[in-house]
Amino acid sequence: xxxxxxxHMKTFIPGEEHSAKHVSSGNMTVLSTPSLIGFxxxxxxxxxxxxLTEEFTSVGTMINIxxxxxxxxxxxxxxxxxxxxxxxxxFTFYFEAFSNGKKIASGTHERAIVNKxxxxxxx
Length: 123
Hints:
The chain is an alpha+beta fold. Helices cover 23% and strands 43% of the residues.
């Protein structure tokens, strides 16, 4: 696959709906790990979409995250994505997330390439 886009950065502003307390992953009003994973998937999907034709999309299949620092609700989260590999129908990404200039998480994420029509037929 001829890859056009290899790096991406996207900023997210977490709201109360992204808090650990709201998603029931904890009892604090801080950015939840599940919400952070959603931010990573969203930013990674954007790189994937840049490299696919209209009849294809990508779906998340694996994530390995180390969430090392809490961050406040309302404080910007910068997610930096690097496409490491694109082969065998999969994209593999490395990511880091920052809040207020401090690293809050890092890890890897994998997405499978699927034909939209075939994928929905198989549900």
